[in-house]
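Recap from last week: sequence in, structure out.
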Amino acid sequence: MATRRHDPERRQRIIQAALEVITDSGMAACTHRSVAARADVPLGSMTYHFDSREALLEEAFGLLSAYMLDKWREQLEGVDSPAQACAAIVDWVCGDQPMAADTLIPMMELYVYAARNAPARRLIGDWAAQVQQTLGQYFEPATVRALDAVIEGITLHNIYSGGTIARAEVEAIVARISAGGELPG
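Predicted structure tokens:
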């Protein structure tokens, strides 16, 4: 009888490999076989850890969401005023993080997947709620929703336009939206 190899990190490696496959080849290429090959695990490990491709995708997109939320929270560390929050938003939108291929491509795949998948929609909704909760420390609710939409919208625009909106323009947009929407201090 063969001995079972103890590999406590296998499940996490599989999830990370799924994100890599999505980033490199798209969600359609994210099969049990392609992910097993990327993670360097036996194909049988896939069905041992995940009862379906959808379960694997949900875990992979959950990992992406957690990573992006951690980066967002880091972006807002030390922010204690609406003006600083606006500067952090501009830095985020104009910085490298949301435009990095290893986050940008799977984020876009997640949005498309969520159009027809309720758990993925909930994941995006939870993600947006947490972003809005952090912004809610500085702005009233309508302003928070508008700023969140601007963050997502400018990121999408930059992807599809092949360029980026100039920092000065992003600063002006964020300033216009946030004007008058600050919480009383």
